[in-house]
Design brief:
- This protein has about 240 residues and is an alpha/beta fold.
- It folds into 2 domains: about 110 residues, 3-Layer(aba) Sandwich (Rossmann fold); about 110 residues, Rossmann fold, CATH 3.40.50.
- Helices cover about 45% and strands about 10% of the residues.
- It has 10 helices and 7 strands.
- A 4-stranded parallel beta sheet has the order 5-4-6-7, sandwiched between helices. A 3-stranded parallel beta sheet has the order 2-1-3, sandwiched between helices.
- Helix 1 links the parallel strand 1 and strand 2.
- The protein is globular and about 45 Å long.
Length: about 240
C-alpha cells in the first residue's frame, strides 16, 4: 500500500500537538529522513475553547476546525487526526461534508483497552468536564463492555485546574504540583475500582506517566499516533518506551 500523508489538526493545546508529533516520529520505523512519513500540521491555538463551547454556550470551534481540515487537504493530507479529546465531542458534526476522513480518538482508545487488557471491565477517565458531561467517550467505551468511572465534584475541578495549569506552566518546577494533582485524582479512581486509567485529555499525559499508577495508563496521544502511523501505511514500532 502506498504511504498516505497524515494531516494533524492541532494547537489545542500546542504542547500536546508537539508531543503527538514526537510520538509519530518515535513510532515510525526509520533509519534516515526519507524513511519517515510525510506529516502536515496545522497548529492553530486560536480555535475557540472546546469546554467553553460545550458547557457555557461559547463560540463553536466547528467552523475553525472545518477550515483547518480544508487547509490540510489543500496541503496534501490524505486523512486527519485531531490530538484534542474535547474536540471529538464535535466529531460527527465535523465528519458531515468533511474534505477528508477523520480518525476517531474515541475508537482508537476503546479498541486499545479491549485488545491490550481484555480482562479490564472498569476504567477511570481523566478528561475535561465538557468531555465527561457530553458522554460520548463513555458511550464508546461502553460498546467495548467497559464501565467508566469519572472524578467526583472537587476532584473534577482539580482535573480542570490541572489541564489549564499545564497549558499555562512552561517550567518543570511549575508542573510539580500539577503532577501531584493528576496522580492524586487517578489514584482515587483506582481506589474506587478502576482497573485502568485513560488520560482522556491530551494535556494529562504531559504530567502523568505509567510509572505513577499501579494499573495500566492509556495515553490517548500515543494511541492516536500509533493509529496515524498505521493508517499512513506503516507498522508502528513495538516496545517504544
Amino acid at each position: 500500500m502506498a504511504e498516505r500523508v497524515i494531516g494533524v489538526l492541532g494547537g489545542m493545546g500546542p504542547e500536546a500537538t508537539l508531543a503527538f508529533f514526537s510520538w509519530i516520529l518515535k513510532l515510525t520505523p526509520a533509519a534516515r529522513d526519507q524513511d519517515h512519513l510525510r506529516v502536515v500540521i496545522d497548529s492553530n491555538p486560536k480555535i475557540p475553547d472546546r469546554t467553553a463551547a460545550l458547557l457555557h454556550g461559547g463560540p463553536s470551534p466547528v467552523p475553525a476546525l472545518r477550515q483547518g481540515i480544508a487547509g490540510l487537504r489543500r496541503a496534501g493530507a490524505d486523512f486527519v487526526v485531531i490530538p484534542c479529546v474535547s474536540a471529538h465531542a464535535f466529531l460527527e458534526e465535523l465528519r458531515e461534508g468533511a474534505a477528508l476522513p477523520i480518525l476517531s480518538l474515541f475508537d482508537v482508545t476503546a479498541e486499545a483497552v479491549r485488545a491490550r487488557h481484555p480482562a479490564v471491565r472498569r476504567v477511570g477517565l481523566l478528561a475535561t468536564t465538557g468531555t465527561i458531561r457530553v458522554g460520548r467517550f463513555q458511550e464508546r467505551l461502553a460498546r467495548e463492555g467497559l464501565e467508566t468511572l469519572t472524578p467526583a465534584g472537587e476532584d473534577q475541578e482539580l482535573v480542570m485546574r490541572t489541564i489549564y495549569g499545564v497549558k499555562a506552566a512552561a517550567g518543570e518546577a511549575d508542573r510539580r504540583p500539577l503532577r501531584e494533582n493528576a496522580r492524586g485524582v487517578a489514584g482515587r479512581l483506582v481506589a474506587a475500582g478502576a482497573e485502568a486509567v485513560i488520560a482522556g485529555c491530551t494535556e494529562i499525559p504531559l504530567v502523568l506517566s505509567p510509572e505513577d499508577l499501579p494499573v495500566p495508563l492509556f495515553d490517548t496521544l500515543r494511541l492516536l499516533a500509533e493509529a496515524a502511523v498505521a493508517t499512513a501505511g506503516r507498522t508502528p514500532r513495538a516496545g517504544v518506551p
